[in-house]
Design brief:
alpha/beta, TIM Barrel, 8 strands, 14% strand
């Protein structure tokens, strides 16, 4: 399993306890690039779980999806930076000023502490949102692809390092941004896993082949089907798929 392939895997630690998260980190820290810590684990165990994971040698993607007034998001960005995480995200729909405030605060904090600034990514549209939800429920006109491209352009103008987007929109993003941006794609499911509650999905190999930088995978790794084996076995399968996609690009 090549290092380049494994480093592109972000494992979603969507578990309710620190013990469950720690067990996964210990098992997988040498086999994946990052661990995503999101709302379930944060609200169950508190922010200290992030430090626990970094102390164990895990690289953390803090999936806090910051979305508030610029001053509040700036403060949250400073706090995230102090934890020594690798990346965190903000909602692009919070607007330009909010995204710029996050970047400025993280840059200032990392400079003061003489540490590497975490990558800051903009969330475009959640992968649970389909065309009907966008238009009928949220009352946002147009198609999903156009909305994702517009939000990506805002993130680019604000200076963010990249975006979170469905694999379905990767090619449109690459066609419409003027600089190299990181693309992190949730909504990724191996062929042997159920799509569950995500609607705009693709396999890990397909997402990487289209231009994703990282893929986020949760339950297919943390709770793989019995015929696949344990979480390490599942990661190896996904990494092999990614390696094949990188070789064929």
């Amino acid at each position: 399993m090549g290092a380049l392939a494994k480093d592109r895997i972000i494992v979603a630690l969507d578990v309710p306890t620190e013990r469950a998260a720690v067990d996964l980190v210990i098992a997988l820290r040498d086999h994946v690039g990052l661990f995503k810590v999101g709302l379930e684990l944060l609200t169950s165990e508190g922010i200290q779980v992030v430090r626990k994971i970094t102390d164990l040698g895990g690289n953390v993607f803090l999936d806090g999806k910051f979305n508030d007034i610029p001053n509040t998001v700036a403060g949250a960005s400073r706090g995230a930076t102090r934890m020594g995480i690798r990346m965190f995200n903000v909602h692009t729909m919070g607007g330009m000023d909010m995204m710029k405030a996050a970047l400025k605060a993280a840059a200032a904090e990392s400079s003061e502490l003489e540490i590497q600034r975490p990558l800051i990514l903009g969330v475009t549209l959640l992968t649970s949102i389909d065309q009907n939800i966008l238009n009928a429920q949220l009352r946002i006109p147009g198609d999903i692809e156009s909305q994702v491209v517009q939000l990506t352009r805002l993130a680019e103008e604000a200076g963010l390092d990249g975006v979170i987007a469905s694999p379905k929109e990767i090619e449109a993003i690459l066609r419409n941004v003027s600089r190299q941006m990181i693309i992190v794609t949730p909504g990724v499911r191996p062929v042997w896993a159920s799509p569950q509650d995500q609607r705009r999905v693709m396999t890990p190999g397909e997402a990487i082949a289209r231009g994703a930088t990282y893929v986020v995978v949760g339950r297919p790794i943390t709770k793989p089907p019995a015929e696949v084996g344990n979480p390490v076995d599942a990661v190896h399968r996904i990494a092999d798929e990614i390696a094949n996609a990188l070789t064929s690009k």
